[in-house]
């Protein structure tokens, strides 16, 4: 068995670029804007109207005069608007996890990088229902004066995209140069190209598909049950007491299993024990390295995420099915799209598998869309869309420049 | 997407054979025997001595005069000694889940079946730490007069096999005609062949391997955390109150995801909704068919299993590594084995993958053991060892008769 120490893995232990680096976007500040109020509520897929809605977003690079150089970046389940650079007010705003690391796709965004801020203006906004500045279950319901909790309406990927459209329109952008996202972000990019075909020139969809698999639905169900079963959950009304931290931590542990490939887990941890001269400690607590890793991932997540948001966002992930726009027929759903597509999958991704990405690629191909599909060999599993920077950078750079990459 | 109704799946909805059928072992009764007492405690791998230990076992078919026709069958995580036939006293003993179905491998055991009770005497005993008649955490600790709970010592596959050896010796059996098991049962069969090489003639190992993968360890860690985090868990002392039912149910839900292949989940459930004209219900509860399936599996499990036993047995599953007998070298560990081996894997099993079974097969092959390895194409995932009866019956029948099946 190959015993690669996790600290020796260059892609995971990449040194962060300093905010002063010439290829960093530097210090960033979030913007917050109200995009729905009583006079203009957002009509949700569930039938409810929601207002007010505040949206947090960040921008990197300058919009040109025609406002036709804008890339809308869409984040995944646990992501936020802070995609690049260093958050200037992180400490002040109590977002301690942002203090010692840059945004979640920093390696891809900046002067000269794949999303080149010398050319493009990149916008990333936090999704509805999240806990990073956009209205969500932890926000105060103006009607009651207390946090929504589970009275927050069920939101969908479609709702997110309609809200993003308000932001884009508010900023005076008629047509997006590109929409880009990985995982659940990729599904938002897809939804953009189907919901607003005339406003999307290019769509880059990574580690994603038209819909979550039955197995993915099953994992989300277990994760949510773990939160709902936490002693502190209290029907979602926990904001004035202890969070359902352990339930959320378990949900996150499970998530991480699905983000890593079996190979990556074997290479990183194998069956190594933490102590005791690599022998069993004969107890029920954390004994294997892989348990320690999951424990760490779970615990560090609860300090930065809200359990209710986890419930709502995984549900949005469950409900999304691009084929719904075609009455269940994915080809029919794809017909109206007008964007050029780049679809990228990763060989060891078993959450959104290459087969699933390919299914979408073929639907676009059959409906005569301009689509390139690339499967990147990687052992990183679903996480690859965050880690395989060297592999995806030339593909995305070229695609954004207008060059075709590959056929299917 | 193929929409196979789960009720139309013949392998899952096979009609149970009646106890009066000529190929059923008929009505069965468990035996219970004390195999360790104060004068003769069982020394466990963790260093502790345990006594008293009662063991529940069942026998099907007759032992011949030389007692050389005995097959020891080893059960998996949630299994028990009741492997075949109909439990006569199930109702009386409050084991309601045994009333309307036969033992867990009934399709394989009986007159004329793969484990032919006209020829062989099949013995199956419940493992130490379980909750089906053998001493475990729910048993009364004679020193305190209350259930052990988490004071029960950590047990291992090695401990189980040493206890089984006491049973086999008590029954006067010198050499087992065969040891057979699937999953965690397969690891016991392997351990038998390594710990007691002179007492095992044949070993049949299904859907199993020399050790659990890092990913398997990770799933078990999440499952245990879910139990430990249940409001009712109370440090394992819940026997006079409510069980940590929901935590155990979640653990079981997660288990079932790993028992089914992604293909099987897609074919059985796809993304179908339960109600609402196959459209989303816009809530956080059970909405998809696959959620309903997992919910059912979880809830039906808690009525028949003990949460502490789940903790202990999954830990035994974690700790087992056949290579430990060779100082970490699997080839060296296999050297002393003298049994003939039949290893069977299933193509879509992702808990104990064909690659992992093959790794064991090659270690046995390199150390010049008599080993046959067969990978059966199946979409049933890990569950296949319980379901692919028609495929495994001829392989096992022939192997037990002494015929060689295939090479590696």
Summarize the structure.
The structure is a homodimer of 408-residue chains. By secondary structure, chain A is α/β, with parallel strands linked by helices.
Task: Compute the average pLDDT of chain A.
Answer: 95
Note the run of SSEs of chain A as H and E.
EEEEEEEEEEEEHEHEHHHHHHEHEHH
Rounded to the nearest angstrom, the radius of gyration of chain A is: 21 Å
First-residue to last-residue Cα separation of chain A: 35 Å
Tell me, briefly, the overall form of chain A: globular
Strand order of the largest sheet of chain A: 2-5-10-6-13-14-15-16
Main sheet attributes: strand count, strand direction, barrel closure of chain A: 8 strands, mixed
> Low-confidence runs of chain A (pLDDT<50, min 5 residues)?
1-7
Structural class of chain A: alpha/beta
The amount of beta strand of chain A, in percent, is: 15-25%
Share of residues in helices of chain A: 25-40%
What is the multimeric organization of the chains shown?
Answer: homodimer
Interface with most residues: A-B, 57 and 57 residues
State the total count of DSSP E strands of chain A: 16
Number of helices of chain A: 11
């Amino acid at each position: 068995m190959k015993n690669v120490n996790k600290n020796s893995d260059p892609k995971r232990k990449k040194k962060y670029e300093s905010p002063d680096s010439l290829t960093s976007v530097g210090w960033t500040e979030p913007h917050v804007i109200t995009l729905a109020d009583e006079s203009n509520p957002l009509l949700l897929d569930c039938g409810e109207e929601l207002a007010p809605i505040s949206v947090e977003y960040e921008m990197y690079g300058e919009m040109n005069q025609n406002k036709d150089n804008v890339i809308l970046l869409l984040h995944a389940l646990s992501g936020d608007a802070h995609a690049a650079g260093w958050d200037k007010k992180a400490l002040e705003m109590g977002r301690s996890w942002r203090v010692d690391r840059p945004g979640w796709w920093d390696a891809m965004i900046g002067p000269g990088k794949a999303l080149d801020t010398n050319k493009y203006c990149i916008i990333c906004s936090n999704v509805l229902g999240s806990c990073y500045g956009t209205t969500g279950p932890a926000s105060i319901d103006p009607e009651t004066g207390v946090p929504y909790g589970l009275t927050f309406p069920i939101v969908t990927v479609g709702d997110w995209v309609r809200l993003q459209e308000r932001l884009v329109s508010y900023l005076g952008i008629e047509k997006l140069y590109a929409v880009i996202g990985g995982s659940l972000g990729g599904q938002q990019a897809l939804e953009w190209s189907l919901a607003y075909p005339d406003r999307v020139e290019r769509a880059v969809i990574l580690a994603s598909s038209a819909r979550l698999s039955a197995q993915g639905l099953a994992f989300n169900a277990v994760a949510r049950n773990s939160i709902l079963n936490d002693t502190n959950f209290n029907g979602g009304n926990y904001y004035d007491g202890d969070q359902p931290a352990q339930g959320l931590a378990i949900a996150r542990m499970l998530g991480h299993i699905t983000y890593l490939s079996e190979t990556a887990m074997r290479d990183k941890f194998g069956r190594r024990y933490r102590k005791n001269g690599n022998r069993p400690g004969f107890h029920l607590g954390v004994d294997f390295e892989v348990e320690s890793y999951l424990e760490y991932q779970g615990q560090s997540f609860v300090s930065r995420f809200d359990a209710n948001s986890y419930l709502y966002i995984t549900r949005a992930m469950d409900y999304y099915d691009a084929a719904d726009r075609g009455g269940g027929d994915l080809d029919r759903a794809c017909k109206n799209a007008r964007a050029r597509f780049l679809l990228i999958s990763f060989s060891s991704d078993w959450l959104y598998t290459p087969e699933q990405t390919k299914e979408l690629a073929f639907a676009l191909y059959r409906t005569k869309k301009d689509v390139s599909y690339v499967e990147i060999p990687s052992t990183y599993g679903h996480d690859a869309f965050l880690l395989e920077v060297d592999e995806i950078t030339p593909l995305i750079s070229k695609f954004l420049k207008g060059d075709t990459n590959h056929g299917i």
